[in-house]
Amino acid sequence: MSRELRLRIVSGVILGILVLAATWAGGIWFRSLSVLIMVLVHYEFSTITNAPVKAPLANAIGWLSVLATAGFILTSLPSMALAAIIIGAAGAVLAGVIRGAGLWSAAAVLYAGFSGLALAEIRGEGHFGLFAMLFLFAIVWSTDILAYFCGRALGGPKLAPRISPGKTWSGAVFGAAAGVGAGVGVALIVRQGGGLMIPLIALILAVASEIGDLFESWVKRRFGAKDSSQLIPGHGGVMDRVDGLVFAAFAAFLLGNLLPLADHAGVADELAARLLGL
Question: Which residue spans traverse the membrane (predicted)?
């Protein structure tokens, strides 16, 4: 085993323990984790796209929006957080029209802001949110791990060679299959039964996770960056670690609002109930 792989595994295990502890605790602990992820993702996205230099006004507006969103997430005001994200992105675009290069700053606000909001709302305060987050984590982590190892072991045709030359169709297929299996496993443990919707939802979230990985790779390649930063030993930056989780959380949040209404109070409980049929 190479030194790089050992470092990747050790840092991944430590991060996983910390994330699971915050997920179990819920409340302000998980909201704080969501805000931390959001702030670091916005910093890395802005740095990769060189927004502070190319679009200083749009970048400043983006930071104001992200900080306002953080405050609203921490105080459990999701509607205000959503408004802050939309207003911030619109402000960045307008600043770009005036001073140039604002679209990437707007993209940073949307990408980071919705990641923080979606994660916080999925977890919520109660045990339904805990089940939904464990469901989501199991899918994303299984997809990522199996895609990495199966892709390296099996090789074969490239998935998107112009975006990420290392990714293969074999990795994508086995990763998605692992994600579905993990999601069904969590659902069976939680519900003592699955239902036909569970593997379909798990597949959607697994594919969303892989799309998120490709999107981040495209952004980095577009701006000639190898990693989003060097904050996490063996993994690069926060965006490198949560790229799949961000898109899967987006998809879960949308699915939670599109599936039939469940009989539970609260946004997070409704979302979790719809995802797992609780």
Answer: 12-41, 61-94, 101-122, 128-150, 171-190, 196-215
